[in-house]
Amino acid sequence: MTSIAPAAPAMSRRLGWLAAIRPWHLAILALLLVYPFVANDFWIVQIGAQAFFLGLIALSLMLLAGYGGMVSLAQMAIAGMAGYLYAILFGYTGGGAGWHWTLAIPAALLVAVLFATLIGLLSVRTEGIYTIMITLAVGVAFFYFCQQNYDIFNGHRGYAGLAPPMVFGVDWRQPLAFYYLSMGAALAGYLLVLWLSRSTFGIALQALRDNPRRMAALGFNVAAHRVAAYAVAGLLAGVGGLLTVWYNGRISPGSIDVDAAINILIIAILGGLRRPSGPFIGALIFVLLDNFAIDLIDRERFNLVIGGAFLAVVLFSPDGVLGLWDRLLQRLAKNRGARGT
What are 185-207's pLDDT values in tens digits? Predict the structure, then answer.
């Protein structure tokens, strides 16, 4: 007689995923889906879509720093690599290889993943400040190489006239289409990181973060796990880089300079490095400050505003805005318990 017992664990895992869905998850998803129909083009693209793809790049940093304990300042360089390869292979104003988008986009993402893997190979055997300095050095070196190389990267001018390809007859440059494209990519990245965090690989990565020596003693290949995390983070950053290029319509060394790299770090820390939703919350805060800082203070003093917000979060909640939210919920629960007693 055939036994059906082995199917039980798989069914339990499926039910576990369903049990993890809360009503407020569905409410947020419904709000994001309806949002473009009640907002104008500025709020749809400049705020909504930009928060999605900046959050996606910051999500790649959150995967490395939050789950792996590796702070990388090269994520914007990886995103820029994907953008440059797309421009070179697909086409830009006045040139380009003219590859079909079904080849150009996967090739650009593949090169971004390989670039991230190389960065991982260079940095995974270091920790703390040394990892930060190595990844920062790679990002700065890539910036200057793009700025000074005219044969491949067209120097400081970069490439202009970049747009998403026409797929299914849809012009993805239109605000509504681009918003849903960015939202779909962000949602896919969020679910991927959420799934990885609960997989064997994700649990092992978090254990490596806490005690790499003990994991090595148990037989785990510490370097291989960390390099694999860099590769996955490179894919997330590459997708975010393509969306950034399509949003700006161009790419140049100014898109990947040190300021851009620091902005990604600020976004990730503002939202929180403990959960995949943190980078998107941080990106929304950053984009709102970036667009409305002129109403609060002179535009030239934007760095003062964002620096003050960053300092306040670091001082009062090392876990970012999500940490403040958790503390608020705990206090409310404690007050309810006290009243019940």
Answer: 999 999 999 999 888 999 999 99
